[in-house]
Amino acid sequence: MFVLSIVPGPSIFLVIARSMTSSLGRGLVTILGIVLANFIFILLAVLGVGALVASMDGLFTMLKYAGSGYLFWLGIKLLLAKAKESTFDDLENTSWSSNFAAGFVITISAPRAILFYVSLLPNFVDLDKIQVVDILLLMLVAALAVGGAKLPYALLAYKSSLFLRKGKTREIMSAIAGGVMITTAIVVALKP
């Protein structure tokens, strides 16, 4: 789970963009959204509704495009901002809930994740005999693996942004962060 979570993909790019343009705290809240979506996937797999969720492809598609559109809009906003505007200050004021929701939506809209849990858990856990304590342990492992994989990205992105927020580098930073968000939005939208 940790290895799959550390591989760069849409959720990593989102954590990097949020940590660079907002704050470390908001990057961490984005990670919490990602972890909560993984908890939901675990519950769905354990409760045996993986096949039902897999059949709800239309809902996942709608969530995917909504999340992708939101990221695209944020990317455009960053690209169009002038250096003298308080681009980072505006994004730092984004609500905690919008950062959480962005992480949640980018993860919950990936139907492959539920398939991952549905196919992985039965190899390690007897789902017919699973207890509440086992489910809580699975969630703890997911939180440590997924959150632990994303945390270094958030820390490095935030530390980099402290240096890059000065003078001309602020304009460059806005363009890079905007490009990352737009690219992530496109990848999420085009991903089957």
Can you walk me through this structure?
It is built from ten helices and no strands. With 192 residues, it is mainly alpha-helical. It has one domain. Helix 2 runs antiparallel to helix 10, helix 3 packs parallel to helix 7 and helix 5 packs across helix 7. About 5% of the residues have low confidence.
Largest sheet: none
Q: Specify Rg, calculated over alpha carbons.
A: 18 Å
- Helix percentage range: over 70%
Distance between the termini: 21 Å
* Tally of distinct domains: 1
Order of helices and strands: HHHHHHHHHH
Individual helix count: 10
Class inferred from helices and paired strands: mainly alpha
Quickly list its features.
globular, 192 residues, mainly alpha
A few lines on this structure:
The chain is mainly alpha-helical and 192 residues long.
